[in-house]
């Protein structure tokens, strides 16, 4: 995973969905270690899976581990100072929100790349879906999507949001 090559390639390439997923999984594990662990993890030490299912599994696992660590915080621990991987000492809350911002940023990029692919590659069928973690889908789905809108009722979404991980 060549993130910090110097000098950068010319022209700088457009990244792929796979690169973004691996990037996000790796940095989630790095942030986890620096925010809650022994503060030694480096992006260069990550073992990258060789297929899509492995990369998605890594991302889901990294997200689950990070969420579990955040769930374990109490009101005092959220303000403890921890070293950031770039050298500053910051409150845990700052590091957690930095990781959340990274997720929003990079998953939005994944959405854009997927939209671009859909526009250019209509002749190729999409790959089969990779199953996600149990909390990803609303459970139970009582009535299914509305025939009028195609969306699930708000009550099913509320069940998903309130379901413990």
The largest beta-sheet arranges its strands as: 1-2
Terminal CA distance reads 30 Å
Query: How large is the share of residues in beta strands?
Result: under 5%
Secondary-structure-derived class: mainly alpha
**Outline:** globular
N-to-C series of helices and strands: HHEEHH
User: Helicity level, as a percent range?
Assistant: 40-55%
Number of strands: 2
Taking all Cα atoms into account, the compactness measure Rg is 19 Å
Q: How is the main sheet built?
A: 2 strands, antiparallel
Low-confidence stretches: 155-165
Mean pLDDT: 80
Number of helices: 4
Describe this structure in words.
- With 165 residues, the protein is mainly α.
- Helices cover 47% and strands 4% of the residues.
- It is built from four helices and two strands; from the N terminus they run H-H-E-E-H-H.
- A two-stranded antiparallel sheet has the order 1-2.
- Strand 1 (81-83) and strand 2 (89-91) form a beta hairpin.
- The chain is globular, with a radius of gyration of 19 Å.
- Residues 155-165 have low confidence and may be disordered.
